[in-house]
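Worked example 2:
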Amino acid sequence: MTLVLKNAEMGGLLPMGQNIEDMEVAFREYGQEIAVNRPRMRMYVPLGEPETYYWFNNIAGIVPGFKGMALRIDSSKARAVLRDGRWREEYPDDFVGLVLLFDIESCRLLAIMDDHYLSVTRVAATSAVAAKFLARQDAGVLGLFGTGEQARTQLEAMALVRPLRLAKVFSPNRANRERFAAEMAEKLKLEVRAVSDPLEVVRGADIINAATNAADPLVDGRWLEPGQHLSTLVGGDYRRKRDELDHEAYLRCDLIVVNTREQVRQDRQGNLFELLEAGKLQWESLAELGEIVAGKRSGRTGPRQITLCKNNHGMGIQFAVTARRIYELARARGIGRELDDELFLTRREGVWSP
């Protein structure tokens, strides 16, 4: 039987700590060339409204250690808007976002799952895996840009891999940042302080985490201090240049780690791509997270290094492990609804073949 799971049914099923452990396995297998990942592909068609497009997104990957293959697809509108004085990317109206989970031994479709919950948690788990290898062991202060769902899960995940005692959070909306600080302080039992100046987020922070929908840079490279670790989510693509870091921030980093170099090149991602094309940074100097986790390249090698994880795009391997784990937990607890998998299975009869 094929299990169908909605976002609300998955919420709370998967402990973040477990997802971080699973994600480390996924990236290790990817670095060892065991797991397989296909570059994310996006298509856009302009609609009648200003700066509004039809957007189709697909991401695929296989992690043999989890016997899972995942395909994420999205059918949605995408729109650039000016909000609180900054450009950002938003996705208006209803949409279709699905993850199809396959078993690589039986080839059967195990589950059809909403993608939103899966996406938010796998992003945070990836940032935490990177911080485990790149942030200083004694990192206790986190500077956070953003107060949305991504920011919440990023803070939760970082608190599991480093001994955080303080998180400073900035959002252009005062009410949002103060509400976020109060709620997350209660949830995580650590000090979360709302600040009104972006510079204050960076000053004295051991980890700087940008978790926003921003199109324009939030972090000025002149603010950076020795020993810091940066984590950023926005990658942008060929349609619209987006980046949470300015040129100077990239140039000041001693080590830049991306999910895959291929995706940076294919999507022409933001300020990082511009610096690479201009020869101010070298492609061979970029490390991939899988290479770091697999031990093929070094992570942080000194306490004064400035390191960066550009968690720059979705990867199928992230969905393969997250979806498989949630599928197993949902099965064990009797959550979700079932469809006869004969609806999706083609029997090997006569002339029928893939």
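The CA atoms of residues 43 and 217 lie 24 Å apart. The radius of gyration is 20 Å.
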